[in-house]
Q: What sequence folds into this?
């Protein structure tokens, strides 16, 4: 006879529900355990990949700026050293150079090579038209007389022309009491009694003894011009001016500067040799401007009135004029330089 054991029935639904949950929990725990280190290594990789992918010009800008800054810093770090060395070399070089200042003045006497004579006609008339008409006729005669000396028209020019009224003071007819203000009819008044016309011309000439042979201008002096003008009707001789022409001035200026610098160089060589040194160069030079004087002969107004009675020609001779210039030169001198003679 068989024995039948009775086993109570299991809760199948509960067992089935507990076992899958445990399995899923284990799987999740294992997945988290494995994915944790993987996640840590993949995030930097993603960042690096993103940086690599964003290597566009905009992204490279900061890197280029840094390089430029670093390069600039390197240059700035290097240049001060070079500049210091350069300044030190210059300071040493300047310290080894000595200077010598020399001043030289050269003076020469020159004769004016040109002159100008101003003559004129002054006429009076009851009316302005009458005064101008008389003046025009006499001035034309004066110019014709001057040109008759062989002087070209280009050397004759009008220097002034004026027409002005002539006033006369009219005194009262009867004596008046000297009080201020004067009583009516006792003041002095002016009336126009005529007109005065004045016309002056200037004649420019070359001094005869300084004229070149090739120049066609005749040998006419200031006295001849005055005599011819007065005989033709001129009653004014305003003055004579002797001066040096621009071309002659430039020639004199160049000569004086050359001589002054040569003199300064010679003095520098003598001084350097006495110091046991030699001139090696020029640091600076200063040239003062040259002033050319003007020799003016002023004649008293109306001095030509009695010229007709003088038989001898008018003699006017130019004098010599002193012209000078000064130069200052600073020379370099040393013991090894070659003498600049």
A:
């Amino acid at each position: 006879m068989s024995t039948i054991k009775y086993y109570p029935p299991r809760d199948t639904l509960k067992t089935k529900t507990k076992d899958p949950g445990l399995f899923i929990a284990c799987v999740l725990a294992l997945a988290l355990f494995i994915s944790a280190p993987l996640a840590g290594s993949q995030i930097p990789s993603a960042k690096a990949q993103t940086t690599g992918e964003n290597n566009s010009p905009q992204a490279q800008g900061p890197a280029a700026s840094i390089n430029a800054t670093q390069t600039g810093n390197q240059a700035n770090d290097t240049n001060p050293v070079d500049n210091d060395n350069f300044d030190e070399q210059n300071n040493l070089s300047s310290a080894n150079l000595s200077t010598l200042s020399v001043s030289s003045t050269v003076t020469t006497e020159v004769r004016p090579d040109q002159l100008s004579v101003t003559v004129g006609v002054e006429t009076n008339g009851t009316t302005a038209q009458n005064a101008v008409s008389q003046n025009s006729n006499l001035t034309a005669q004066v110019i014709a007389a001057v040109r008759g000396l062989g002087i070209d028209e280009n050397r004759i020019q009008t220097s002034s022309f004026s027409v002005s009224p002539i006033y006369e003071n009219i005194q009262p007819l009867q004596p008046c009491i000297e009080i201020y203000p004067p009583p009516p009819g006792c003041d002095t008044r002016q009336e126009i009694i005529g007109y005065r016309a004045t016309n002056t011309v200037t004649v420019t000439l070359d001094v005869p003894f300084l004229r070149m042979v090739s120049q066609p201008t005749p040998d006419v002096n200031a006295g001849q011009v005055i005599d011819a003008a007065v005989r033709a009707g001129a009653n004014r001789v305003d003055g004579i001016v002797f001066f040096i022409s621009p071309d002659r001035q430039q020639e004199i200026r160049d000569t004086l500067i050359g001589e002054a610098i040569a003199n300064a160089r010679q003095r520098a060589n003598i001084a350097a040799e006495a110091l046991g040194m030699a001139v090696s160069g020029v640091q600076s030079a200063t040239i003062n401007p040259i002033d050319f004087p003007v020799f003016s002969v002023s004649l008293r107004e109306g001095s030509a009135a009695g010229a007709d009675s003088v038989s001898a020609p008018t003699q006017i001779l130019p004098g010599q004029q002193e012209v000078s210039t000064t130069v200052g030169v600073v020379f370099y001198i040393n013991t090894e330089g070659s003498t600049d003679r």
Helices lie at 12-53, 57-96, 128-147, 222-231, 246-274.
